[in-house]
Structure formats: structure tokens, C-alpha cells
Amino acid sequence: MLRPFLFLCAAVLPFGADDPWAKVKEIKSGVELRVYKKGAQPLLVKMDEATDENLVVVNKNEQVAIPKDQIDRIDFRPSKSRVTKETKSTVSDPSTDPKSAIPGPGRGHPGPTSSTSTSVGFGSKPDFEMIYRRPTSAPKK
Question: Where are the domains of the chain?
Fold first, then answer.
């Protein structure tokens, strides 16, 4: 009775294993990629789509399909915002500070004041992160 169970487990295992290419298929169109092909310089391209057989990218306004079996590695640049915005607000109440009284007849303390400042910064692009490496084949016996 144990043999059918072992056969069933062995048949289900490959489907449960993580497919590294599935992560490539999930990348949104327009994301910046660095694609390492066998025996070639890395390509800096934009993602279009991934099929089971090819990675379709845009390279210098030209759509190119790269066969999956020619790809050693793929890195992607996360699309985090490079713009940072910081706003600071302060409120001061001069009526609590005796030094802030305005001298003169009939003049008391001025009312509360507020100040707001906003700064915007532009950071560098985030670094590339590896998303795919071609699986190594099992050693031949």
C-alpha cells in the first residue's frame, strides 16, 4: 500500500517546486531589466512580456524576443519612487512668551503664528536585483 503513495508524492513534487521563470512572467511591462545572454554583454532593456519560450523586451525602441534557453540571468530595477517630499509645520504662541509683547500703549501680545516649509529631494535610481538565474543542469553520470 505504500508504493502507490510514494508514486503519487513523486508525481506531485515537480509541480510544487518553485519555477524561477514564473517570477519573470510576473514582471510588469516597462520595468527596466538587465539581461545576461550566453556569451554576450548584458543588455539594458525594458520589459514587454514573458512567455514559456521567450522573453520579449524593448531595446532602443525595437521589440526583441530572446529565447529563454539563451538567458543566463535577469536582473530588474524595482520601480520605487526616487522623489522624496518632506513637510514641516510649526505653530508658536507668542502670548506665552513675555519677551514677545509688543511695546506701546494698548498693545498686548500678538496671536499665534504658524509656519510651513516643504522640501523635495530627488534620489538615485534603486539598484538592480536578480530575479532569474538559469537553473544548473544535473551532472551527467
Answer: 18-80+126-133
- Rounded CA gap, 12 and 30, in Å? 35
Residue 104 DSSP code: S
Rounded to two decimals, what is the model's pTM? Answer: 0.59
Report pLDDT digits (tens) over 32-75.
Answer: 999 999 999 999 999 999 999 999 999 999 999 999 999 999 99
- The CA distance from 141 to 136, in Å, is 15
CATH topology of domain 18-80+126-133: SH3 type barrels. (2.30.30)
- Nearest residue to 50 (alpha-carbon basis) of 38, 69, 68, 33: 68
Close Cβ partners of 127 (under 8 Å, ≥ 6 residues apart): 77
Spatial contact of 99 and 139, defined as CB atoms under 8 Å apart: no
Nearest residue to 116 (alpha-carbon basis) of 94, 83, 86: 86
Q: Which residue has the higher pLDDT, 25 or 102?
A: 25
Residue 97 pLDDT > 90? no
